[in-house]
From TrEMBL:
Keywords on record: 4Fe-4S, Cytoplasm, Iron, Iron-sulfur, Metal-binding, S-adenosyl-L-methionine, Transferase, tRNA processing
The protein's name in its UniProt record: tRNA-2-methylthio-N(6)-dimethylallyladenosine synthase
NCBIfam families per record: miaB-methiolase, MiaB/RimO family radical SAM methylthiotransferase
EC number per UniProt: 2.8.4.3
Entry similarity comment: Belongs to the methylthiotransferase family. MiaB subfamily.
Organism of this sequence: Candidatus Frankia alpina
Region (Disordered): 417-449
Record gene name: miaB
Radical SAM core domain sequence ranges: 143-374
Length: 525
């Protein structure tokens, strides 16, 4: 008998995306199945964020839309988890009494039990744990991608930034042992993953709880020895803890990508002090300078908050100055919004929304200019792309596919019928199957699939992406592409739990660079 169907809707940072993979894995291990596209799921799970003010509005707006759906769908259940659930708790049930389950960041593993209890008792279940009960990496997983995977190296955060509520919701930092991290990496590569992103609220404080302050650099080097692992990324580091041994490991380890996402938040020393960010602009720019000295091709991205309480026009000018000096390839930019429970919410000098919006527009315009100038320098360059699925929203209309370069840039490319396999790669079509249909190519091109690797030349630049409209120089079919193809052919039979190794049809996941704009999905560490 077919199990009940489920859908997980994710708001927030990379940690939330990874948690959603665990929630999906838990549900499938309990007998649930992914809802078919366009269908109404029997269980809808909201994995929430609490970083920005509009997170609340977005959640309750989505919950309100489900009221008539639930009335017409007997037995349907709604669950709310994540940071906002950890913060609001019973308030969610007060504001949305049609919700069946509320659970927190520390007890993800309880979701299947809580759903069954709510159904059996015909009453809402609220369960919030104050401390982590089970390390999430020990839970079953439904990975969102065959070729790219998140690997959590720590949970929680020991920082005390005045604008951020995350530490109070996710608890103190706890590190996984390096051997456990590497075992997960090796298992993922064994299943076909080519790229992993090491994930933590503050990755370069990794090892502090283990008594080894150099553990993160050592972990990067160890990942370099994993056979078959082609790309290693990490997010997010804190400038306070960024040490030169990490730069050396990035430069010396062949599969560690020359990409760095390092939150700035503000270019003003006074604002950084009020934010309780324990570094200043000179230290930040010094790290950028040393990274570029060791890796001239490094793509550096950041997070910036505009309109923090007390920010003057001179403070904002300092931020613009750092953007010019650092030459960021991209940025997550935010208009400050007060979060109840944070020190910044009650600070003097709250700035009116019109001023914040005007400064924000100037910042975005400058960052667009900087990003575009950098991208124009790449026109004519050869790039290696890991083919993605779902990142090019206009691909069907333009007859292109999309992929990520090693530096994380998004590239939209065409497939040419004259391409030859890369040296050492499998012959075209060796794995069989239809590959990805290429609009406008009349099926004449090679069967390039998500997870395969291609090389091409950049022909055009835009602020947030690159285009390559010439012929492919090479392509290589991979085990990740094979897994995508198998999952596409038999989605109903696949489970994709990490402990089963079975391939599955999955939704795309972006592990690349951020774009400029109010991206609510950014980490703000």
């Amino acid at each position: 008998m077919k199990g009940r169907s489920y859908e997980v809707r994710t708001f927030g940072c990379q940690m939330n995306v990874h948690d959603s993979e665990r929630l999906s894995g838990l549900l499938e291990s309990a007998g649930y199945v992914p809802a078919a596209p366009g269908s109404e799921a029997d269980v809808v799970v909201f994995n929430t964020c609490a970083v920005r003010e509009n997170a609340d509005n977005r959640l309750y707006g989505n919950l309100g839309q489900l009221v008539p759906v639930k009335k017409g769908h007997p037995g349907m259940q709604i669950a709310v988890g994540g940071c906002l659930a950890q913060k609001d708790r019973a308030t969610i049930l007060d504001r949305a009494p049609w919700v069946d389950v509320v659970f927190g960041t520390n007890n993800l593993h309880r979701l299947p039990v809580l759903l069954e209890r709510a159904r059996h008792n015909a009453s809402a279940q609220l369960e919030i744990a104050e401390a982590l009960e089970v390390f999430p990496s020990s839970l079953p997983t439904r990975r969102a991608s065959h070729h790219s995977a998140w690997v959590s190296i720590s949970v929680g955060c020991d920082n005390t930034c005045t604008f951020c509520i995350v530490p109070s919701l996710r608890g103190r930092e706890r590190d996984r042992r390096p051997g456990d991290v590497l075992a997960e990496v090796e298992a993922l590569v064994g299943e076909g993953a080519l790229e992993i992103t090491l994930l933590g609220q503050n990755v370069n404080s990794y090892g502090r709880s283990l008594g080894d302050p150099g553990a993160f650099a050592k972990l990067l080097i160890a990942c370099g020895r994993v056979d078959g692992l082609e790309r290693v990324r990490f997010t997010s580091p804190h400038p306070r803890d960024f040490t030169d041994d990490v730069i050396e490991a990035m430069a010396a380890t062949a599969n560690v990508c020359h990409q760095l996402h390092m939150p700035l938040q503000s270019g003003s020393d006074e604002v950084l002090r009020r934010m309780r960010r324990s570094y200043r602009r000179d230290r930040y720019l010094g790290i950028v300078e040393r990274v570029r000295a060791a890796m001239p091709d490094a793509a550096i991205t950041t997070d910036i908050i505009v309109g923090f309480p007390g920010e003057t026009e001179a403070d904002f000018a300092d931020t613009l100055d750092v953007v010019r000096q650092a030459r960021f390839s991209g940025a997550f930019t935010f208009q400050y919004s007060p979060r109840p429970g944070t020190p910044a919410a009650t600070m003097d000098g709250q700035i009116d929304r019109a001023t914040v919006a005007e400064r924000y527009a100037r910042l975005v315009a400058l960052q667009d200019e900087v990003s575009w100038a950098q991208n124009r320098e790449l026109v004519g360059r050869r790039v290696e792309l890991l083919v993605a699925e779902g990142e090019g929203r206009k691909d069907d209309a333009t007859g292109r596919l999309s992929g990520r370069a090693r530096d994380g840039r998004l590239v939209h490319f065409r497939v040419d019928s004259g391409v030859q396999p890369a040296p050492g790669g499998d012959p075209a079509g060796a794995s069989g199957g239809p590959g990805v249909p290429v609009a406008g190519a009349a099926g004449s091109g090679p069967a390039v699939r998500p997870g395969d690797v291609v090389e091409t030349v950049v022909t055009r630049a835009a602020p947030h992406h690159l285009t390559a409209d010439g012929p492919l120089l090479s392509y290589r079919r991979t085990r990740a592409g094979d897994a995508w193809e198998l999952g596409r052919a038999a989605p109903a039979a696949s489970s994709s739990l990490a402990d089963s190794g079975a391939p599955a049809a999955r939704q795309a996941v972006a592990l690349g660079m951020p774009s400029v704009g109010p991206a609510a999905s950014s980490s703000r560490r």
